[in-house]
Amino acid sequence: MSDLTKMSAAQLAKAIADKEASAVEVATAHLDRIDAVDERVHAFLHVDREGALAAAAKVDAGEVSGPLAGVPIAVKDVIATKGVPTTAASKILEGWRPPYDATLVERLRVAGTVMLGKTNMDEFAMGSSTEYSAYGPTNNPWDLGRIPGGSGGGSAAALAAYEAPLAIGTDTGGSIRQPGAVTGTVGAKPTYGGTSRYGLIAFSSSLDTPGPCARNVEDAALLHSVIAGHDPRDSTSIDQPVPDVIGAARLGAGGDLSGVKLGVVKEFAGDGSEPGVLSAFHESLEALVKLGAEIVEVSCPHFQYALPAYYLIAPSEASSNLARFDGVRYGLRTGDDGSRSLEEVMSLTREAGFGPEVKRRIILGTYALSSGYYDAYYGQAQKVRTLITRDFEAAWQKADVLVSPTTPFVAFPFGSRTSDPYQMYLADLFTIPTNLYGGPAISVPCGLSEGLPVGFQVMAPTMADDRMYRVAAALESAVGTLTPPTLEASA
Amino acid sequence: MAAISREEVAHLARLSRLAVTEEELDRFAGQLDVILQSVARIGDVAADDIPPTSHSVPLTNVYRDDVPVPSLTQEEALSGAPDAYEGRFRVPQILAEED
Protein backbone atom coordinates (compact mmCIF):
# COMPACT_ATOMS: atom_id res chain seq x y z
CA MET A 1 0.00 0.00 0.00
CA SER A 2 1.40 3.34 -1.09
CA ASP A 3 2.04 6.07 1.45
CA LEU A 4 0.15 8.43 -0.85
CA THR A 5 -3.08 6.59 -0.03
CA LYS A 6 -2.51 7.07 3.70
CA MET A 7 -2.14 10.84 3.47
CA SER A 8 -4.90 13.26 4.35
CA ALA A 9 -6.53 15.45 1.72
CA ALA A 10 -4.82 18.52 3.22
CA GLN A 11 -1.42 16.79 3.01
CA LEU A 12 -2.03 15.64 -0.56
CA ALA A 13 -3.13 19.12 -1.69
CA LYS A 14 0.05 20.58 -0.21
CA ALA A 15 2.34 17.89 -1.64
CA ILE A 16 0.87 18.42 -5.12
CA ALA A 17 1.04 22.22 -4.85
CA ASP A 18 4.67 21.97 -3.71
CA LYS A 19 5.42 19.57 -6.61
CA GLU A 20 6.52 16.84 -4.18
CA ALA A 21 4.05 14.52 -5.89
CA SER A 22 2.20 14.81 -9.17
CA ALA A 23 -1.57 14.60 -9.36
CA VAL A 24 -1.21 11.67 -11.76
CA GLU A 25 0.96 9.79 -9.23
CA VAL A 26 -1.62 10.42 -6.52
CA ALA A 27 -4.54 9.33 -8.73
CA THR A 28 -2.65 6.23 -9.87
CA ALA A 29 -1.84 5.23 -6.28
CA HIS A 30 -5.52 5.38 -5.35
CA LEU A 31 -6.70 3.62 -8.53
CA ASP A 32 -4.16 0.85 -7.87
CA ARG A 33 -5.39 0.56 -4.31
CA ILE A 34 -8.97 0.21 -5.63
CA ASP A 35 -7.75 -2.52 -7.99
CA ALA A 36 -6.08 -4.30 -5.08
CA VAL A 37 -8.86 -4.25 -2.49
CA ASP A 38 -12.22 -3.31 -3.98
CA GLU A 39 -13.06 -6.85 -4.99
CA ARG A 40 -13.30 -7.52 -1.26
CA VAL A 41 -14.74 -4.17 -0.12
CA HIS A 42 -17.05 -3.35 -3.06
CA ALA A 43 -17.16 0.36 -2.23
CA PHE A 44 -17.39 1.33 -5.90
CA LEU A 45 -20.12 0.72 -8.48
CA HIS A 46 -18.07 2.39 -11.20
CA VAL A 47 -14.39 3.33 -11.35
CA ASP A 48 -13.53 6.03 -13.89
CA ARG A 49 -9.79 5.38 -14.31
CA GLU A 50 -9.57 7.19 -17.63
CA GLY A 51 -11.49 10.25 -16.45
CA ALA A 52 -9.48 10.42 -13.22
CA LEU A 53 -6.12 10.26 -14.97
CA ALA A 54 -7.21 12.89 -17.50
CA ALA A 55 -8.36 15.23 -14.71
CA ALA A 56 -5.09 14.65 -12.83
CA ALA A 57 -3.05 15.39 -15.96
CA LYS A 58 -4.83 18.75 -16.27
CA VAL A 59 -3.79 19.61 -12.72
CA ASP A 60 -0.18 18.66 -13.46
CA ALA A 61 -0.28 20.75 -16.64
CA GLY A 62 -1.37 23.77 -14.58
CA GLU A 63 -4.73 24.00 -16.38
CA VAL A 64 -6.67 23.52 -13.15
CA SER A 65 -5.85 24.99 -9.77
CA GLY A 66 -8.07 25.35 -6.71
CA PRO A 67 -7.85 24.52 -3.01
CA LEU A 68 -8.03 20.74 -3.52
CA ALA A 69 -6.13 20.53 -6.82
CA GLY A 70 -5.21 16.93 -7.54
CA VAL A 71 -6.92 15.42 -4.49
CA PRO A 72 -8.89 12.26 -5.39
CA ILE A 73 -12.54 11.96 -4.42
CA ALA A 74 -15.27 9.32 -4.57
CA VAL A 75 -18.85 10.41 -5.26
CA LYS A 76 -22.00 8.64 -4.08
CA ASP A 77 -23.86 7.16 -7.02
CA VAL A 78 -27.02 9.18 -6.29
CA ILE A 79 -25.35 12.31 -7.72
CA ALA A 80 -25.47 13.08 -11.44
CA THR A 81 -22.08 13.02 -13.16
CA LYS A 82 -22.06 13.97 -16.84
CA GLY A 83 -21.22 10.99 -19.04
CA VAL A 84 -20.34 8.79 -16.05
CA PRO A 85 -22.84 6.06 -15.04
CA THR A 86 -25.24 7.11 -12.29
CA THR A 87 -27.62 4.46 -10.98
CA ALA A 88 -28.57 5.31 -7.37
CA ALA A 89 -27.72 1.60 -6.93
CA SER A 90 -31.00 0.74 -8.67
CA LYS A 91 -31.67 -1.57 -11.62
CA ILE A 92 -34.12 1.00 -12.93
CA LEU A 93 -31.21 3.32 -13.80
CA GLU A 94 -28.69 0.67 -14.85
CA GLY A 95 -26.33 2.10 -17.46
CA TRP A 96 -27.77 5.63 -17.32
CA ARG A 97 -25.20 8.32 -18.16
CA PRO A 98 -26.55 11.73 -17.15
CA PRO A 99 -26.31 14.51 -19.75
CA TYR A 100 -25.38 17.04 -17.03
CA ASP A 101 -23.39 17.48 -13.81
CA ALA A 102 -24.80 18.17 -10.36
CA THR A 103 -23.84 21.62 -9.03
CA LEU A 104 -21.60 20.09 -6.41
CA VAL A 105 -19.79 18.05 -9.06
CA GLU A 106 -19.10 21.28 -10.97
CA ARG A 107 -17.77 22.79 -7.76
CA LEU A 108 -15.55 19.78 -7.11
CA ARG A 109 -14.07 20.22 -10.55
CA VAL A 110 -13.44 23.94 -10.03
CA ALA A 111 -11.71 23.08 -6.74
CA GLY A 112 -9.39 20.75 -8.69
CA THR A 113 -10.47 17.41 -7.22
CA VAL A 114 -10.01 14.25 -9.26
CA MET A 115 -13.09 12.00 -9.30
CA LEU A 116 -12.15 8.33 -9.00
CA GLY A 117 -15.63 6.90 -9.44
CA LYS A 118 -19.09 6.37 -8.01
CA THR A 119 -19.77 4.66 -4.70
CA ASN A 120 -22.22 2.00 -3.64
CA MET A 121 -25.26 2.76 -1.50
CA ASP A 122 -28.67 1.47 -0.54
CA GLU A 123 -30.98 1.78 -3.53
CA PHE A 124 -32.17 5.41 -3.81
CA ALA A 125 -30.49 6.03 -0.42
CA MET A 126 -33.13 3.99 1.42
CA GLY A 127 -31.40 1.91 4.05
CA SER A 128 -28.75 1.78 6.76
CA SER A 129 -26.46 -1.03 5.60
CA THR A 130 -26.01 -1.02 1.77
CA GLU A 131 -27.76 -4.40 1.83
CA TYR A 132 -30.50 -2.81 -0.31
CA SER A 133 -28.10 -1.97 -3.15
CA ALA A 134 -29.28 -3.75 -6.30
CA TYR A 135 -25.62 -4.50 -7.04
CA GLY A 136 -24.71 -6.26 -3.80
CA PRO A 137 -23.55 -4.83 -0.47
CA THR A 138 -20.36 -3.02 0.48
CA ASN A 139 -18.24 -4.78 3.12
CA ASN A 140 -16.95 -2.88 6.15
CA PRO A 141 -13.11 -2.70 6.00
CA TRP A 142 -13.02 -3.22 9.79
CA ASP A 143 -14.73 -6.61 9.41
CA LEU A 144 -15.71 -7.74 5.94
CA GLY A 145 -18.62 -9.74 7.37
CA ARG A 146 -20.28 -6.62 8.69
CA ILE A 147 -22.25 -3.74 7.20
CA PRO A 148 -20.52 -0.41 6.43
CA GLY A 149 -23.64 1.56 7.34
CA GLY A 150 -25.98 3.18 4.89
CA SER A 151 -27.13 4.49 2.78
CA GLY A 152 -23.66 5.93 2.02
CA GLY A 153 -21.73 2.81 2.99
CA GLY A 154 -19.68 2.86 -0.21
CA SER A 155 -18.34 6.37 0.39
CA ALA A 156 -17.46 5.60 4.03
CA ALA A 157 -15.86 2.24 3.20
CA ALA A 158 -13.79 3.81 0.39
CA LEU A 159 -12.25 6.13 3.00
CA ALA A 160 -11.67 3.37 5.56
CA ALA A 161 -10.12 1.13 2.89
CA TYR A 162 -7.73 3.95 1.83
CA GLU A 163 -9.24 3.92 -1.66
CA ALA A 164 -9.96 7.67 -1.47
CA PRO A 165 -9.10 10.45 0.98
CA LEU A 166 -12.40 12.27 0.42
CA ALA A 167 -15.92 11.28 -0.53
CA ILE A 168 -19.34 12.83 -1.06
CA GLY A 169 -22.41 11.52 0.71
CA THR A 170 -26.04 12.52 1.08
CA ASP A 171 -27.90 12.57 4.38
CA THR A 172 -31.68 12.25 4.53
CA GLY A 173 -31.97 10.49 7.90
CA GLY A 174 -28.33 9.78 8.77
CA SER A 175 -26.88 8.37 5.54
CA ILE A 176 -23.61 10.31 5.91
CA ARG A 177 -23.22 10.14 9.69
CA GLN A 178 -24.16 6.54 10.47
CA PRO A 179 -21.78 5.06 7.84
CA GLY A 180 -19.10 7.42 9.19
CA ALA A 181 -19.70 6.10 12.70
CA VAL A 182 -19.52 2.40 11.86
CA THR A 183 -16.43 2.74 9.63
CA GLY A 184 -14.45 4.99 11.99
CA THR A 185 -14.51 7.95 9.59
CA VAL A 186 -15.88 11.50 9.73
CA GLY A 187 -19.19 12.39 8.10
CA ALA A 188 -20.89 15.78 8.18
CA LYS A 189 -24.45 16.71 7.28
CA PRO A 190 -24.49 20.44 6.53
CA THR A 191 -27.45 22.69 7.32
CA TYR A 192 -30.32 21.79 4.98
CA GLY A 193 -30.08 24.24 2.10
CA GLY A 194 -26.41 24.86 2.82
CA THR A 195 -25.41 22.54 -0.02
CA SER A 196 -27.17 22.36 -3.38
CA ARG A 197 -29.50 19.48 -4.28
CA TYR A 198 -29.35 20.26 -8.02
CA GLY A 199 -28.33 17.01 -9.71
CA LEU A 200 -29.04 14.88 -6.65
CA ILE A 201 -31.55 12.13 -7.46
CA ALA A 202 -34.37 13.06 -5.08
CA PHE A 203 -35.46 10.74 -2.28
CA SER A 204 -37.10 13.05 0.28
CA SER A 205 -36.70 16.59 -0.97
CA SER A 206 -37.39 18.40 2.30
CA LEU A 207 -34.66 16.37 4.04
CA ASP A 208 -31.97 15.42 1.46
CA THR A 209 -28.63 17.13 2.19
CA PRO A 210 -25.33 16.42 0.40
CA GLY A 211 -22.21 16.66 2.52
CA PRO A 212 -18.56 15.73 3.04
CA CYS A 213 -17.00 12.43 4.17
CA ALA A 214 -13.31 12.21 5.17
CA ARG A 215 -10.85 10.47 7.49
CA ASN A 216 -10.37 13.52 9.69
CA VAL A 217 -12.29 16.65 10.68
CA GLU A 218 -10.10 19.20 8.89
CA ASP A 219 -10.43 17.33 5.58
CA ALA A 220 -14.21 17.24 6.02
CA ALA A 221 -14.19 21.01 6.59
CA LEU A 222 -12.06 21.60 3.49
CA LEU A 223 -14.48 19.60 1.37
CA HIS A 224 -17.50 21.22 3.04
CA SER A 225 -16.28 24.71 2.14
CA VAL A 226 -15.80 23.67 -1.48
CA ILE A 227 -19.29 22.27 -2.04
CA ALA A 228 -21.37 24.61 0.16
CA GLY A 229 -22.98 27.89 -0.78
CA HIS A 230 -25.97 29.32 -2.59
CA ASP A 231 -27.07 27.79 -5.89
CA PRO A 232 -29.74 29.57 -7.97
CA ARG A 233 -30.64 26.19 -9.49
CA ASP A 234 -31.91 24.90 -6.13
CA SER A 235 -34.81 27.01 -4.85
CA THR A 236 -34.29 25.75 -1.27
CA SER A 237 -30.63 26.74 -1.27
CA ILE A 238 -29.84 29.31 1.45
CA ASP A 239 -28.53 32.63 0.14
CA GLN A 240 -26.14 33.40 3.00
CA PRO A 241 -22.37 33.20 3.46
CA VAL A 242 -20.99 29.72 4.24
CA PRO A 243 -19.95 29.48 7.91
CA ASP A 244 -16.15 29.39 8.41
CA VAL A 245 -15.92 25.65 8.94
CA ILE A 246 -12.19 25.44 8.15
CA GLY A 247 -11.32 28.12 10.71
CA ALA A 248 -13.56 26.41 13.26
CA ALA A 249 -11.92 23.00 12.67
CA ARG A 250 -8.47 24.51 13.13
CA LEU A 251 -9.59 26.39 16.23
CA GLY A 252 -11.03 23.18 17.69
CA ALA A 253 -7.89 21.21 16.89
CA GLY A 254 -6.08 23.55 19.29
CA GLY A 255 -7.90 21.67 22.03
CA ASP A 256 -9.53 24.54 23.89
CA LEU A 257 -13.28 24.38 24.47
CA SER A 258 -13.46 26.85 27.34
CA GLY A 259 -16.94 28.24 27.69
CA VAL A 260 -18.54 25.82 25.22
CA LYS A 261 -21.74 24.25 26.55
CA LEU A 262 -22.46 20.71 25.38
CA GLY A 263 -26.08 19.66 25.75
CA VAL A 264 -26.60 15.97 26.49
CA VAL A 265 -30.08 14.94 25.38
CA LYS A 266 -31.75 13.29 28.35
CA GLU A 267 -34.03 11.20 26.13
CA PHE A 268 -31.04 9.65 24.33
CA ALA A 269 -29.19 8.78 27.55
CA GLY A 270 -29.81 5.08 27.99
CA ASP A 271 -32.41 3.12 26.11
CA GLY A 272 -31.47 1.37 22.95
CA SER A 273 -27.69 1.88 22.90
CA GLU A 274 -25.20 -0.93 23.28
CA PRO A 275 -23.13 -0.70 26.51
CA GLY A 276 -19.87 -0.34 24.56
CA VAL A 277 -21.30 2.58 22.59
CA LEU A 278 -22.44 4.30 25.78
CA SER A 279 -19.09 3.88 27.53
CA ALA A 280 -17.16 5.28 24.53
CA PHE A 281 -19.61 8.21 24.47
CA HIS A 282 -19.18 8.94 28.19
CA GLU A 283 -15.38 8.70 27.99
CA SER A 284 -15.53 11.24 25.15
CA LEU A 285 -17.63 13.58 27.27
CA GLU A 286 -14.98 13.39 30.00
CA ALA A 287 -12.27 14.18 27.44
CA LEU A 288 -14.22 17.23 26.26
CA VAL A 289 -14.70 18.44 29.85
CA LYS A 290 -10.91 18.28 30.29
CA LEU A 291 -10.66 20.65 27.30
CA GLY A 292 -12.83 23.16 29.12
CA ALA A 293 -16.31 22.27 27.88
CA GLU A 294 -19.28 22.37 30.21
CA ILE A 295 -21.94 19.64 30.18
CA VAL A 296 -25.60 20.57 30.56
CA GLU A 297 -28.54 18.21 30.44
CA VAL A 298 -31.31 19.18 28.06
CA SER A 299 -34.70 17.62 27.54
CA CYS A 300 -36.11 17.17 24.05
CA PRO A 301 -39.39 15.40 24.80
CA HIS A 302 -40.49 15.02 21.19
CA PHE A 303 -37.32 13.36 19.91
CA GLN A 304 -38.90 10.00 20.73
CA TYR A 305 -41.39 10.68 17.95
CA ALA A 306 -38.77 11.60 15.35
CA LEU A 307 -38.40 8.07 14.00
CA PRO A 308 -42.16 7.57 13.38
CA ALA A 309 -42.45 11.09 11.90
CA TYR A 310 -39.52 10.42 9.58
CA TYR A 311 -40.91 7.08 8.41
CA LEU A 312 -44.10 8.85 7.38
CA ILE A 313 -42.60 12.01 5.86
CA ALA A 314 -39.69 10.43 3.93
CA PRO A 315 -41.72 7.63 2.27
CA SER A 316 -44.48 10.11 1.41
CA GLU A 317 -42.04 12.37 -0.40
CA ALA A 318 -40.32 9.35 -1.96
CA SER A 319 -43.58 7.97 -3.34
CA SER A 320 -44.04 11.25 -5.17
CA ASN A 321 -40.40 11.72 -6.23
CA LEU A 322 -40.00 8.20 -7.59
CA ALA A 323 -43.03 8.60 -9.85
CA ARG A 324 -40.57 10.01 -12.40
CA PHE A 325 -39.22 6.49 -13.03
CA ASP A 326 -41.86 5.58 -15.57
CA GLY A 327 -39.81 3.98 -18.33
CA VAL A 328 -40.25 6.92 -20.69
CA ARG A 329 -37.42 9.44 -20.39
CA TYR A 330 -34.52 7.43 -18.99
CA GLY A 331 -33.65 4.07 -17.52
CA LEU A 332 -35.30 0.71 -17.80
CA ARG A 333 -38.39 -0.19 -19.84
CA THR A 334 -39.80 -3.68 -19.48
CA GLY A 335 -42.63 -5.56 -21.18
CA ASP A 336 -43.12 -3.22 -24.13
CA ASP A 337 -44.09 -5.88 -26.67
CA GLY A 338 -46.42 -3.67 -28.68
CA SER A 339 -49.58 -5.12 -27.16
CA ARG A 340 -49.41 -3.60 -23.71
CA SER A 341 -50.62 -0.16 -22.67
CA LEU A 342 -48.41 2.59 -21.26
CA GLU A 343 -49.78 1.93 -17.79
CA GLU A 344 -49.07 -1.81 -17.98
CA VAL A 345 -45.53 -1.22 -19.23
CA MET A 346 -44.99 1.36 -16.49
CA SER A 347 -46.14 -1.09 -13.78
CA LEU A 348 -43.98 -3.92 -15.15
CA THR A 349 -40.98 -1.59 -15.46
CA ARG A 350 -41.27 -0.34 -11.89
CA GLU A 351 -41.85 -3.86 -10.60
CA ALA A 352 -38.70 -5.10 -12.32
CA GLY A 353 -36.58 -2.02 -11.65
CA PHE A 354 -37.20 -1.32 -7.95
CA GLY A 355 -35.96 -3.46 -5.06
CA PRO A 356 -37.99 -4.50 -2.01
CA GLU A 357 -37.22 -1.58 0.33
CA VAL A 358 -38.01 0.98 -2.37
CA LYS A 359 -41.33 -0.75 -3.10
CA ARG A 360 -42.18 -0.89 0.60
CA ARG A 361 -41.54 2.82 1.00
CA ILE A 362 -43.48 3.78 -2.13
CA ILE A 363 -46.47 1.79 -0.87
CA LEU A 364 -46.11 3.18 2.66
CA GLY A 365 -45.89 6.75 1.36
CA THR A 366 -48.87 6.28 -0.93
CA TYR A 367 -50.81 5.02 2.07
CA ALA A 368 -49.79 7.93 4.35
CA LEU A 369 -50.87 10.43 1.69
CA SER A 370 -54.19 8.83 0.83
CA SER A 371 -57.39 10.59 1.74
CA GLY A 372 -58.73 9.23 5.00
CA TYR A 373 -55.23 8.62 6.36
CA TYR A 374 -53.52 11.90 5.46
CA ASP A 375 -54.44 13.78 8.66
CA ALA A 376 -53.59 10.88 10.97
CA TYR A 377 -50.25 10.11 9.34
CA TYR A 378 -48.59 12.66 7.05
CA GLY A 379 -50.37 15.68 8.55
CA GLN A 380 -49.63 14.58 12.11
CA ALA A 381 -45.97 13.87 11.22
CA GLN A 382 -45.61 17.44 9.93
CA LYS A 383 -46.97 18.80 13.20
CA VAL A 384 -44.54 16.64 15.16
CA ARG A 385 -41.79 18.06 12.95
CA THR A 386 -42.73 21.49 14.29
CA LEU A 387 -42.52 20.21 17.88
CA ILE A 388 -39.09 18.64 17.26
CA THR A 389 -37.88 21.96 15.84
CA ARG A 390 -39.17 23.71 18.97
CA ASP A 391 -37.26 21.19 21.13
CA PHE A 392 -34.05 22.15 19.31
CA GLU A 393 -34.76 25.87 19.68
CA ALA A 394 -35.41 25.48 23.41
CA ALA A 395 -32.17 23.48 23.72
CA TRP A 396 -30.15 26.31 22.14
CA GLN A 397 -31.18 28.50 25.09
CA LYS A 398 -29.10 26.22 27.33
CA ALA A 399 -26.43 24.70 25.09
CA ASP A 400 -24.20 25.67 22.15
CA VAL A 401 -24.35 22.20 20.60
CA LEU A 402 -26.11 18.92 21.39
CA VAL A 403 -24.15 15.66 21.63
CA SER A 404 -25.09 11.97 21.49
CA PRO A 405 -23.78 8.70 20.14
CA THR A 406 -24.23 8.75 16.34
CA THR A 407 -25.91 5.37 16.19
CA PRO A 408 -27.04 3.02 18.97
CA PHE A 409 -24.98 0.05 17.81
CA VAL A 410 -21.66 -0.75 16.12
CA ALA A 411 -21.49 -2.33 12.63
CA PHE A 412 -23.78 -5.34 12.64
CA PRO A 413 -23.37 -8.61 10.70
CA PHE A 414 -25.00 -8.88 7.28
CA GLY A 415 -28.56 -10.17 7.31
CA SER A 416 -29.23 -9.46 10.96
CA ARG A 417 -31.73 -6.63 10.40
CA THR A 418 -33.18 -7.24 6.94
CA SER A 419 -36.07 -9.53 7.87
CA ASP A 420 -37.73 -6.89 10.05
CA PRO A 421 -37.46 -3.50 8.29
CA TYR A 422 -38.21 -1.61 11.50
CA GLN A 423 -35.10 -3.07 13.19
CA MET A 424 -33.08 -1.51 10.36
CA TYR A 425 -34.79 1.85 10.90
CA LEU A 426 -33.54 1.94 14.53
CA ALA A 427 -29.98 2.54 13.25
CA ASP A 428 -31.08 6.13 12.57
CA LEU A 429 -32.65 6.78 15.97
CA PHE A 430 -30.19 9.54 16.94
CA THR A 431 -29.53 11.03 13.52
CA ILE A 432 -33.10 11.65 12.34
CA PRO A 433 -34.13 14.55 14.65
CA THR A 434 -31.53 16.79 12.99
CA ASN A 435 -32.90 16.08 9.53
CA LEU A 436 -36.44 16.98 10.58
CA TYR A 437 -35.14 20.22 12.15
CA GLY A 438 -32.81 21.06 9.25
CA GLY A 439 -29.68 21.87 11.24
CA PRO A 440 -26.16 20.54 10.76
CA ALA A 441 -24.60 17.54 12.52
CA ILE A 442 -21.33 15.65 12.33
CA SER A 443 -20.13 12.19 13.35
CA VAL A 444 -16.55 11.84 14.52
CA PRO A 445 -14.84 8.61 15.67
CA CYS A 446 -14.57 8.43 19.47
CA GLY A 447 -13.26 4.95 20.21
CA LEU A 448 -13.87 1.25 19.78
CA SER A 449 -16.39 -1.16 21.20
CA GLU A 450 -15.40 -4.81 20.85
CA GLY A 451 -12.88 -3.78 18.20
CA LEU A 452 -15.39 -1.84 16.09
CA PRO A 453 -15.66 1.96 15.69
CA VAL A 454 -18.07 4.12 17.66
CA GLY A 455 -19.22 7.54 16.42
CA PHE A 456 -19.82 10.70 18.47
CA GLN A 457 -22.46 13.07 17.08
CA VAL A 458 -22.39 16.86 17.44
CA MET A 459 -25.56 18.74 16.42
CA ALA A 460 -25.62 22.51 15.97
CA PRO A 461 -28.14 25.28 15.22
CA THR A 462 -29.13 26.04 11.64
CA MET A 463 -26.28 27.80 9.75
CA ALA A 464 -23.93 27.32 12.71
CA ASP A 465 -22.08 24.45 11.00
CA ASP A 466 -18.80 25.94 12.27
CA ARG A 467 -19.73 25.10 15.88
CA MET A 468 -19.95 21.37 15.24
CA TYR A 469 -16.59 21.38 13.44
CA ARG A 470 -14.94 23.09 16.40
CA VAL A 471 -16.21 20.53 18.91
CA ALA A 472 -15.55 17.56 16.59
CA ALA A 473 -11.97 18.71 15.94
CA ALA A 474 -11.39 19.19 19.67
CA LEU A 475 -12.59 15.66 20.36
CA GLU A 476 -10.37 14.34 17.57
CA SER A 477 -7.39 16.13 19.10
CA ALA A 478 -8.12 14.39 22.41
CA VAL A 479 -8.91 10.84 21.25
CA GLY A 480 -7.10 10.75 17.88
CA THR A 481 -8.28 9.31 14.58
CA LEU A 482 -8.91 5.57 14.21
CA THR A 483 -6.66 3.44 12.00
CA PRO A 484 -8.62 0.82 10.08
CA PRO A 485 -7.06 -2.57 9.25
CA THR A 486 -5.01 -2.32 6.05
CA LEU A 487 -6.66 -5.36 4.39
CA GLU A 488 -3.22 -6.60 3.28
CA ALA A 489 -3.23 -9.72 5.47
CA SER A 490 -6.19 -11.33 3.77
CA ALA A 491 -4.95 -10.55 0.27
CA MET B 1 -56.04 -6.01 14.56
CA ALA B 2 -53.91 -5.50 11.49
CA ALA B 3 -53.29 -1.86 10.58
CA ILE B 4 -53.29 -2.68 6.89
CA SER B 5 -54.81 -5.57 4.95
CA ARG B 6 -53.44 -7.55 2.01
CA GLU B 7 -56.22 -6.08 -0.15
CA GLU B 8 -55.24 -2.54 0.82
CA VAL B 9 -51.61 -3.24 -0.07
CA ALA B 10 -52.72 -4.59 -3.46
CA HIS B 11 -54.76 -1.43 -4.05
CA LEU B 12 -51.85 0.83 -3.05
CA ALA B 13 -49.49 -1.10 -5.32
CA ARG B 14 -51.86 -0.51 -8.24
CA LEU B 15 -52.02 3.20 -7.42
CA SER B 16 -48.20 3.21 -7.28
CA ARG B 17 -47.92 1.45 -10.65
CA LEU B 18 -46.12 -1.54 -9.18
CA ALA B 19 -47.05 -4.92 -10.67
CA VAL B 20 -46.23 -6.76 -7.44
CA THR B 21 -46.35 -10.55 -7.26
CA GLU B 22 -48.63 -12.57 -4.98
CA GLU B 23 -45.62 -13.55 -2.91
CA GLU B 24 -44.61 -9.90 -2.50
CA LEU B 25 -48.15 -9.01 -1.45
CA ASP B 26 -47.99 -11.58 1.34
CA ARG B 27 -44.61 -10.35 2.51
CA PHE B 28 -45.24 -6.61 2.20
CA ALA B 29 -48.63 -6.82 3.96
CA GLY B 30 -46.96 -8.31 7.04
CA GLN B 31 -43.99 -5.96 6.99
CA LEU B 32 -46.03 -2.82 6.37
CA ASP B 33 -48.32 -3.85 9.21
CA VAL B 34 -45.33 -3.98 11.60
CA ILE B 35 -44.07 -0.60 10.34
CA LEU B 36 -47.48 1.06 10.63
CA GLN B 37 -48.02 -0.31 14.16
CA SER B 38 -44.60 1.14 15.08
CA VAL B 39 -45.25 4.59 13.63
CA ALA B 40 -48.88 4.77 14.81
CA ARG B 41 -47.80 6.12 18.21
CA ILE B 42 -47.25 9.43 16.50
CA GLY B 43 -50.99 9.82 17.09
CA ASP B 44 -50.28 10.00 20.86
CA VAL B 45 -48.79 13.49 20.49
CA ALA B 46 -51.32 16.22 21.28
CA ALA B 47 -50.76 18.50 18.31
CA ASP B 48 -54.19 19.80 17.29
CA ASP B 49 -53.17 23.45 17.54
CA ILE B 50 -49.61 22.98 16.23
CA PRO B 51 -48.88 24.33 12.73
CA PRO B 52 -47.37 21.77 10.35
CA THR B 53 -43.79 22.08 9.06
CA SER B 54 -43.37 20.95 5.47
CA HIS B 55 -39.90 22.31 5.19
CA SER B 56 -37.11 23.56 7.48
CA VAL B 57 -36.32 26.62 5.37
CA PRO B 58 -39.32 28.96 5.38
CA LEU B 59 -39.43 30.20 1.79
CA THR B 60 -42.16 31.41 -0.52
CA ASN B 61 -41.84 32.21 -4.20
CA VAL B 62 -38.14 32.03 -4.92
CA TYR B 63 -37.37 33.94 -8.09
CA ARG B 64 -34.20 34.52 -10.02
CA ASP B 65 -33.41 36.89 -12.84
CA ASP B 66 -34.57 35.58 -16.19
CA VAL B 67 -31.17 35.14 -17.81
CA PRO B 68 -30.99 32.85 -20.86
CA VAL B 69 -28.38 30.11 -20.47
CA PRO B 70 -27.66 27.09 -22.68
CA SER B 71 -29.87 24.09 -21.95
CA LEU B 72 -29.65 20.44 -22.98
CA THR B 73 -29.80 19.81 -26.70
CA GLN B 74 -32.62 17.62 -27.98
CA GLU B 75 -30.08 14.87 -28.55
CA GLU B 76 -28.78 15.13 -24.96
CA ALA B 77 -32.29 15.15 -23.52
CA LEU B 78 -33.14 11.98 -25.43
CA SER B 79 -29.80 10.28 -24.74
CA GLY B 80 -31.13 8.14 -21.88
CA ALA B 81 -34.53 7.36 -23.36
CA PRO B 82 -35.47 3.67 -23.69
CA ASP B 83 -37.11 4.50 -27.01
CA ALA B 84 -36.97 7.65 -29.13
CA TYR B 85 -38.42 8.47 -32.53
CA GLU B 86 -37.77 11.52 -34.70
CA GLY B 87 -36.50 13.62 -31.82
CA ARG B 88 -39.27 12.62 -29.41
CA PHE B 89 -39.79 10.19 -26.54
CA ARG B 90 -41.67 7.19 -27.88
CA VAL B 91 -44.19 5.64 -25.48
CA PRO B 92 -46.35 2.51 -25.53
CA GLN B 93 -49.97 2.98 -26.62
CA ILE B 94 -51.92 5.30 -24.37
CA LEU B 95 -55.39 4.63 -25.81
CA ALA B 96 -56.49 1.16 -26.85
CA GLU B 97 -57.33 0.75 -30.55
CA GLU B 98 -60.99 0.34 -31.46
CA ASP B 99 -61.77 -3.10 -32.78
TrEMBL record, chain A:
Reaction(s) catalysed (UniProt annotation): L-glutamyl-tRNA(Gln) + L-glutamine + ATP + H2O = L-glutaminyl-tRNA(Gln) + L-glutamate + ADP + phosphate + H(+)
Keyword ATP-binding: yes
Active site (catalytic residues): 76, 151, 175
Enzyme class: ligase
Keywords (A to Z) from UniProt: ATP-binding, Ligase, Nucleotide-binding, Protein biosynthesis
Every Amidase domain range: 25-467
Source organism superkingdom: Bacteria
Enzyme Commission (EC) number: 6.3.5.7
Record GO terms (molecular function): glutaminyl-tRNA synthase (glutamine-hydrolyzing) activity
Keyword Membrane: no
Family: Belongs to the amidase family. GatA subfamily.
Quaternary organization: Heterotrimer of A, B and C subunits.
Job of this protein: Allows the formation of correctly charged Gln-tRNA(Gln) through the transamidation of misacylated Glu-tRNA(Gln) in organisms which lack glutaminyl-tRNA synthetase. The reaction takes place in the presence of glutamine and ATP through an activated gamma-phospho-Glu-tRNA(Gln).
Protein name stated in the entry: Glutamyl-tRNA(Gln) amidotransferase subunit A
The encoding gene: gatA
From TrEMBL, chain B:
EC number from the UniProt entry: 6.3.5.-
GO BP term (any one): regulation of translational fidelity
Gene3D superfamilies per record: Glu-tRNAGln amidotransferase C subunit, N-terminal domain
Protein name: Aspartyl/glutamyl-tRNA(Asn/Gln) amidotransferase subunit C
Keywords from the named record: ATP-binding, Ligase, Nucleotide-binding, Protein biosynthesis, Transferase
One Pfam family per UniProt: GatC
NCBIfam families referenced in this protein's UniProt entry, alphabetically: gatC (TIGR00135)
Function: Allows the formation of correctly charged Asn-tRNA(Asn) or Gln-tRNA(Gln) through the transamidation of misacylated Asp-tRNA(Asn) or Glu-tRNA(Gln) in organisms which lack either or both of asparaginyl-tRNA or glutaminyl-tRNA synthetases. The reaction takes place in the presence of glutamine and ATP through an activated phospho-Asp-tRNA(Asn) or phospho-Glu-tRNA(Gln).
InterPro entries attached to this UniProt entry: Asp/Glu-ADT_sf_sub_c, GatC
Subunit structure and binding partners: Heterotrimer of A, B and C subunits.
Family: Belongs to the GatC family.
Superkingdom: Bacteria
Organism: Paractinoplanes abujensis
MF annotations from Gene Ontology: ATP binding; glutaminyl-tRNA synthase (glutamine-hydrolyzing) activity; transferase activity
Catalytic reactions of this protein: L-aspartyl-tRNA(Asn) + L-glutamine + ATP + H2O = L-asparaginyl-tRNA(Asn) + L-glutamate + ADP + phosphate + 2 H(+); L-glutamyl-tRNA(Gln) + L-glutamine + ATP + H2O = L-glutaminyl-tRNA(Gln) + L-glutamate + ADP + phosphate + H(+)
SUPFAM superfamilies from the UniProt entry: Glu-tRNAGln amidotransferase C subunit
